[in-house]
Amino acid sequence: AETLFRSGRGHVIDYVSSAVRMDHVPPPALPEVCFIGRSNVGKSSLIRALFSLSPEVEVRVSKTPGHTKKMNFFKVGKYFTLVDMPGYGYRAPQDFVEMVEAYLQERHNLKRTFLLVDGVVGLQKADHIAVEMLEEFGIPYVMVLTKIDRASRGLLLKNVLHIQEFVKEKTQGCFPQLFLVSSPEFLGVHLLRCFVAHVTGNLPAVEAS
């Protein structure tokens, strides 16, 4: 998985383009994963951490919540595309719903959606709405708990247990395992790279001998 996220000769990782409408997105030639979440959940920071082995890849991280206003596409060699979606909730773009709903419904090469939840504040009303949308469209998704370095152990445990209970009781299409990450400290980032490589069909299964 680390080899996949490390650019080199013959394996270029790069920002491809941005789009606000589906007729502007790159052709669906490769398997794709997308990252969605509330504004200021740490989405761009996590994507930058995933690409940290290739520091030349420019992922803009802003201190201003809601900075990502477009769908940003990053091509990982000839293997897959990663999409940074606009944040929902606070300062979301006006056409967020139309943009994201169209993407989720029409993007047939989308292999997995990563729904990011703030590890300090836990599941919010806006997150519930995002889950309802993914469930309604039948989109397979994964929950990722961000900023775990900022939460006390007690608070983190409370939020993890709440999400696990929510996933078990209220969801059909959610991957049962919750991923816990810290972008500044790279906690959980390697595991997430492995999972992305797996769902895009780029991590061969190793048979036990």
UniProtKB/TrEMBL annotation:
Q: Which UniProt keywords apply?
A: GTP-binding, Magnesium, Metal-binding, Nucleotide-binding
GO CC aspect terms: mitochondrion
Pfam families, alphabetized? MMR_HSR1 (PF01926)
Q: What is the top-level taxon of the source organism?
A: Eukaryota
- Magnesium listed as a keyword: yes
Which InterPro entries did the record assign? EngB_GTPase, G_ENGB_dom, GTP-bd, GTP-bd_ribosome_bio_YsxC, P-loop_NTPase
Q: Which GO terms describe its molecular function?
A: GTP binding; metal ion binding
All copies of domain EngB-type G, residue ranges: 29-202
Name the needed cofactors: Mg(2+)
Q: Which family does the record assign?
A: Belongs to the TRAFAC class TrmE-Era-EngA-EngB-Septin-like GTPase superfamily. EngB GTPase family.
* Name listed for the protein in its UniProt record: GTP-binding protein 8
